[in-house]
Amino acid sequence: MTDKGKDSQAGGGRAGDGRARDSQAGGRRAGGGRAGDDRAKDSRVKDSQAGGSRATNSHAPTPTPLAPQASLARGVAPARPGTLHARSVTGAVRVTPRPGLTVAFGRGELPEVALAVGEHDLMVSRRHGELTYRGHQWWLRNTGQQLVRLPRGRMLHASTEPVPLATGYTPLFVRGSGYREHLVELYVSGPDDPGLVARRGAETLPPRRWSLDDDERLLLVVLGQEYLLYEEGPRPLTYSRAAQQLAYLRPDRNWNERRIEYRVEAVRRRLHDSGFPHPLLHDNSVGRPSDNSLLHNLLRGLVESTTLVPPDLCLMDDDGEDGGTGTGTSTGECGTADVRGAD
């Protein structure tokens, strides 16, 4: 064999050995990479499992999907007494009662809050309110910077003491930017709560109406004209103006300011003792109140309960002297039919 042949074989051998070594090294590097990937995957799995364990141990309620156009005002499914249902336009939670459990709502995210409210409104605090279960009741507290409004115009400030929630439905409104108010619906299941039961054929429950005699009805219609006309921001007629109108409508009844004051006071005391829904007496009242707030409460409650209805205004017609029946219904009043609504 020539020297060239020997060199060629030697070169081929060296090249082959080099390629083999490179292949083995590449395999080791690839294997090491796959092993690294496997270790990273294992690490992610462990982290995921650890995160799942942390989520399981968290006491924050989990939001539930919303049913289309559902509202807690229509009732809730049967649940254990004391179960809290809370709903906003973007989420809902259902929480069984447990002493010390707190459900927070606001603009923040889980686990800071359980119920999102006003996520895009910077006037809503990240943790705007809390509902805490203690003493067999849910207690509402405002923890935000803006006011929270409850039914009947009640306002909660961050400095206000927590208020208990009654069983059943309670809407509240969180003040936002501009004229915006964010609705939060609350419903606490009671021991006798029937749940969502269809009652299409059942008899309609009428509102509670209050008994008035003929003179009382006419007097309150005159005083509450603006309420029966559904004017914005209605106020009672003054006693002096009411006396003028009553003297014209019933000249034989001797209506004057003194008599009006006496009859209004008698009605307020009687309805207060009967469970009227609005305050009618000052705690330390001994006679005529210093303002019209109690008379306003009286007229508003009579209109809301349909004890007084717009057709009662016909009692103020010149020929309405014999119109009233004093029965507390509008059947036959001023010749009108019953206008308080059908069953």
Topology:
Layout: H1 3-57, E1 84-87, E2 92-95, E3 102-106, E4 115-116, E5 129-134, E6 137-142, E7 148-149, E8 155-156, E9 163-164, E10 168-175, E11 181-188, H2 214-223, H3 225-228, H4 239-249, H5 257-273, H6 293-304
Parallel strand pairs: 3-4
Antiparallel strand pairs: 1-2, 1-11, 3-5, 5-6, 6-9, 7-8, 7-10, 10-11
Describe the 3D structure.
By secondary structure, the protein is α+β, with helices and mostly antiparallel strands. Helices cover 32% and strands 14% of the residues. Strands 2-1-11-10-7-8 form a six-stranded antiparallel beta sheet, with no helix packed on it. Helix 2 packs across helix 4. The longest helix is centred in the N-terminal third of the chain and has 55 residues, at 3-57. It starts with a helix and ends in a 39-residue tail after the last helix.
Query: Largest sheet, if any?
Result: 6 strands, antiparallel
Distance between the termini: 120 Å
Q: What gyration radius follows from the Cα positions, in whole Å?
A: 37 Å
Q: How many beta-strand segments?
A: 11
Instruction: Enumerate the spans where pLDDT stays under 50 for 5 or more consecutive residues.
Output: 2-16, 25-58, 320-332
Element order: H for helix, E for strand: HEEEEEEEEEEEHHHHH
Give the overall silhouette: elongated
Note the beta-strand portion. Answer: 5-15%
- Main structural class: alpha+beta
Please state the average pLDDT score: 78
* Count of discrete alpha- or pi-helical segments spanning 4 or more residues: 6
Could you estimate the helical fraction of the residues in percent? 25-40%
What is the topology, as strand order, of the major beta sheet?
A: 2-1-11-10-7-8
